[in-house]
Amino acid sequence: MLSLEQINLRRGPDLLLEEASFVLHKGWRVGLVGRNGTGKSSLFKLIMGELESDGGNLNCPNDWRLAMMAQEVPALAQPAVDYVLDGHKALRRAERKLADAESAGDNHAIAVAHGELEALHAWQQPARAATLLAGLGFSETQQRQPVSSFSGGWRMRLNLAQVLMSDADLLLLDEPTNHLDLDAILWLQSYLIQQPGALLVISHDRAFLDATVNQILHIERQKLHHYSGGYSDFERQRAEQLALQQKMHDKQQAQVAHLQTFIRRFKAKASKAKQAQSRVKALEKLELIAPAHVDSGFSFDFHMPEKLPNPMENLEQVQCGYRNNEGDVAILSQVSLSLRPESRLGLLGPNGAGKSTLIRTLVGELPPLAGRFEKDRDLAVGYFHQQQVDRLDHSDTPYQMLSRFYPKWSESQLRSELGRFGFHGDDVFAPVGRFSGGEKSRLALAMIVQEKPALLVLDEPANHLDLDMREALTLALQAFEGAVVMVSHDRHLLETTVDEFWLVANGEVRRFDGDLDDYARWLQQNRKDGKPVREEKTDDGLDAKARRQQAAQKREQLRPLKKQVEQQEKQLAECDKQLAQVEQALSDDSLYTDDARRNEMNGLLGDQARLKKQHDELEGALLDAMEALEEAEAKLD
């Protein structure tokens, strides 16, 4: 097993880990999570020996083979499949031994080397490397191409294939899904589940974590916290801990207030001085419990569109593609699609099948080559894509960009809006060129929000976003009043924000009558024989499409009742806040001893009585609204 004992780790002046301890057993699959900058990648480097700790012990079995996914790939002339084979260190060592023995004419050494190669099943390894590359989306032709011929994202796939080739006892994967499409992610998770070694993976893809790990290691406030189960189990367990922590904190604060009141009242009186002093010491010794809070700093919503045209866009027998000097190049044919305010479409399909071509047609970047395409002239479209993020002016700042939308806003208003997307302090005046990929993506989303779109067209919007920001995006999309068309490899985002899937494959676009599990089976079958799988029926006779349609209808029917519950909850929370403020004011002892404040005291007592009555009425109304919602849900189930 690998163990960390009381580890202290710094990067420059920043303390990342303080007295952190953890034990990773053989065969464990662990997800490492935490906010950006908390030290996840640094912990990987510590385990690999690339960093030294500032205290504590790291113990790793001498016979464990460790492999970490590299983050850069040089522009090599070496064929891709050979580059992947380099990941099998023992194989390459045995091959070098054989080459040296043959050069020296040492028959004994040649026999020994052949024995090592036989034990490693050397003759099977090229086929295994090819299988890994195929699973990650490389065609047979691409596997023979030089590494230098691939773009940065595809080179990262090569790095991933190389580390999977290693047969390591512990794999360390840092954001392995960042440059993968949904097809490759589904293949990767099935591969990782079957591999016998231990796994430590950093990922912002909660569905991927749920599918591949059975332990979670959470970095928070320089500590390592271990949870059993997948990411969803971690969220539930942590929520329970935070709720208990908040309860303990509230109880403690009441005790603190009581001690402080006693000290303030009696420490000046000689008869009570000793008792007051003892309470001062008690207050000093009291270990303050941090208030529970969700500290992501991200919370935003899309503004209500100024207009919601119906229909927004109509495509009839449209041919999608592009024009070049040699003429029209059709990618998709006979595309018929209608986008309305209630449309929430997720686009599925193999890499390179034409999803981006369809999206660029929908937003007007590519004119249709044939067919009928109608778009409402008042339609406001919000378009997110990686090229847009990459094209942000590096000399611009978030403050300047937002002020163009709201030239009359004050600095505090602009800062407040940018703060919802995690830009605080001097960051609002920092040039975009200094930002990370995640920060640029957040900024691009912030600008799209200001456009008040009626149609959101999102091409991989979760790329480079951490779990906190992905959750904020999910909630914002769920509450969005307009239409959504999205391509994403984040299954949680797709499953919670779209109502129907469309498949882009074989030059066609058609409704996909299934969910993401069905799509995974379709991919598996398609890889085998090129034939799509059939829609599976459930015991109730409904296919996945019908279930999604029913779910959408149910949400629509329940929407007014849910809004009523939310409204009552907000009113009750506001009443509670006002009542707490009044009761805080009434806790001032001078109210009852100072005659000049008698009218103030009477007014506060009146406010208290009024607010308590209002609280009871609002609580009753909330219970009624919740009961009505529950009855409606029961009828629809």
Could you please describe the fold and organization of this structure?
By secondary structure, the chain is of the alpha/beta class. It has 4 domains: 2-85 and 136-231, Rossmann fold (3-Layer(aba) Sandwich), CATH 3.40.50.300; 236-285; 313-548, Rossmann fold (3-Layer(aba) Sandwich); 554-636. Helix content is 48%, strand content 18%. It has 22 helices and 18 strands. The protein has helices at residues 40-47, 80-85, 89-104, 107-119, 125-135, 140-143, 152-164, 182-194, 206-212, 231-266, 273-285, 355-362, 386-390, 398-405, 411-419, 437-450, 467-479, 491-497, 516-529, 544-586, 590-593, 598-636; strands at 2-11, 14-24, 29-33, 55-59, 66-68, 170-174, 198-202, 215-220, 223-228, 313-324, 327-339, 344-348, 370-375, 381-384, 455-459, 483-487, 500-505, 508-512. The strands form 4 sheets. It has a 6-stranded mixed beta sheet, sandwiched between helices.
